[in-house]
Amino acid sequence: MCSKEKFYITTAIAYTSKKPHIGNTYEIILTDAIARFKRFMGYDVFFLTGTDEHGQKIQELAEQEGITPQEHVDNIAAEIRRIADMLDVSYDKFIRTTDDYHQKAVQKIFTKLYEQGDIYKSEYEGWYCTPCESFWTDTQLENGKCPDCGREVHKTKEEAYFFKMSKYQDRLMKHIEENPGFIQPESRKKEMVNNFLKPGLQDLCVSRTSFSWGIPVEFDKKHIIYVWIDALSNYITALGYTPDGKSELYNKYWPADIHVIGKDILRFHTIYWPIMLMALGEPLPKQIFGHPWLLRGEEKMSKSRGNVIYADDLANRFGVDAVRYYSLHEMPFAQDGNITYEVFISRYNSDLANTLGNLVNRTVSMINKYFGGEIMPGDTAGEFDDDLKAVAAGALSKVSKKMETLHVADSLDEIWKIVNRANKYIDETTPWILAKDEKDRPRLGTVLYNLTEAIRIIASLLSPFMPETSEKIKAQINAEDLSAESAGVFGITKPGTRVGTAEPIFARIDAEKMLKELEDELGGDEEPQVEIEPFKDEIAFDDFEKLDIRVGKVLKCEKVPKSSKLLRFELECGSETRQILSGIAKFCKPEEMIGKNVLFIANLPVRKIMGLESCGMILSAEHGEELRVLTTLGDIHSGAVVV
């Protein structure tokens, strides 16, 4: 643990044009998880978020609504803050660019840059995209449209002030080269360097005269300070920065440790913002992380496409922590994630209800049933104990390493390794059988003690990601300590502690019923119809009966060395163990398969693949571009025949 080392983290401030959808909201959930984890590890965290409230688009929307721009942004900013609060976001400050202190600081920043010769007045003629607040030249347009959003642009000619970007280009290139972690992921850095810096920077338009909703230039009131100087400055004005003096808060927390932003505004944060800071003589942020998008199906969410899902709608149906879990777990580090109601419900049932919720419920129920709710001493050692303890106690270090590189989804996977190992431990130790014999009660007490400890560590590690769930688990096992220090130690729970009542943390959802409700509510199919492969020719029933389809419990699952496709499964099938190779490595994570019941064809000839025998075929189903292994619901014994 650190000794209160400072950590300053920000989201991009949300644009107040309309209510944010889950794709927009993902960013604040991600940033909150990082901020909470840093606090969990002992850092002195300052977490900033807020709203970007000026610009031509805001003015036009307000005119359409018949209200003032201030009334419009007040309404949307309140909605953005309400959603952040509902999602349990632990921000320390919420800045609005209409805040008086921010506007005054921005005016002084503009004046300073002008007086030192970094800003000059000229005339702009080119193409303007109102939604993106961006100017483009003829050569930058793609098919005559905005290269960022693909929307229509319009020709604009007006007097404007410009920032001398090229003056600082070489200095910025040198900084990026000397600080390889400055822009993350690596692919985003290459994009910025190759597409913008190497071809050469053009001077940046930093004022407008064609609309009035913005911060006036202090010495030339007909000019409005253009969005990027206004919006980007929030990261320092929120801390009390002005060119005239710096606050104690600014001196403590600046430079920012990380700006978390969407990949679509990377250019502004990795080129314009660092150059502005260089011109002001201020340190640059340590890191800028351009996260990917959360897509609806294969498309970016947009009201015009009619494919928007809102975070508060999801939370009202499934709970806040289910939304946080899905958002954090289903978004890869550097690639776009995907959300549909169907997949959301599937993840909810499999990961939250069946795997995590069931583990807690079974354990607390057994302690209540067998020992009247009292946790017994864990001093009767047996087989499988050491492995469970090692997995649980070793997880903190692994989660910390993943979080250091912002691999948040992988951090959750590390926590779920404990969940899966604990569920497997129940199957291995069979506490319901131990309960039948009085002489096995000490061992039964130890098994339940070990499960309680594993669950305590799970609750501790989950606290930055799913704080409400962590607290619910803590209450059910009556844990005293969920600190990071305790998460790395197995054996803290005091014997004699009494657990609470076993209550489902995540109640299983009837997927078919829920999807039907959503379909009725949305007035159409929730998901687009999927084209399926043509049905194969009919076969005789006798031919089908020749297939021996069985249930096998996955004991081991691992990648085959030197193969990018193959997984090696060891299946328990009744009293025998089978090895089966399956070419599904890119579709599932081996550790997630352990302990699951899968369906396989048992009477196929033995095949040799890469020198290994494969005794059967695991059944999978197509799901879009993926394959999903077919598993069973409920406890079906291994070796059962599928009829």
From TrEMBL:
Pfam families the record matches = Anticodon_3, tRNA-synt_1g, tRNA_bind
Task: Supply the EC number(s).
Answer: 6.1.1.10
Query: Ligase: is it a keyword of this entry?
Result: yes
Q: Which InterPro entries match?
A: Anticodon_Met (IPR041872), Met-tRNA-synth_bsu_C (IPR004495), Met-tRNA_synth (IPR014758), Met-tRNA_synth_2 (IPR023457), Methionyl/Leucyl_tRNA_Synth (IPR015413), MetRS_core (IPR033911), NA-bd_OB-fold (IPR012340), Rossmann-like_a/b/a_fold (IPR014729)
Name the coenzymes or cofactors required.
Zn(2+)
Any idea which UniProt keywords this protein has?
Aminoacyl-tRNA synthetase, ATP-binding, Cytoplasm, Ligase, Metal-binding, Nucleotide-binding, Protein biosynthesis, RNA-binding, tRNA-binding, Zinc
Class of enzymatic activity (EC top level) = ligase
**Residue ranges of the TRNA-binding domain?**
543-643
Q: Where in the cell is it found?
A: Cytoplasm
Q: How is the cofactor bound?
A: Binds 1 zinc ion per subunit.
Q: Where does Zn(2+) bind?
A: 129, 132, 146, 149
Q: Which reactions is this enzyme annotated as catalysing? A: tRNA(Met) + L-methionine + ATP = L-methionyl-tRNA(Met) + AMP + diphosphate
A GO CC annotation given for this chain? cytoplasm
Major subcellular location class? cytoplasm
Sequence similarity: Belongs to the class-I aminoacyl-tRNA synthetase family. MetG type 2A subfamily.
List the NCBIfam families hit by this protein, alphabetically.
Answer: metG, PRK12267.1
**Protein name as it appears in the record:** Methionine--tRNA ligase
- Gene designation: metG
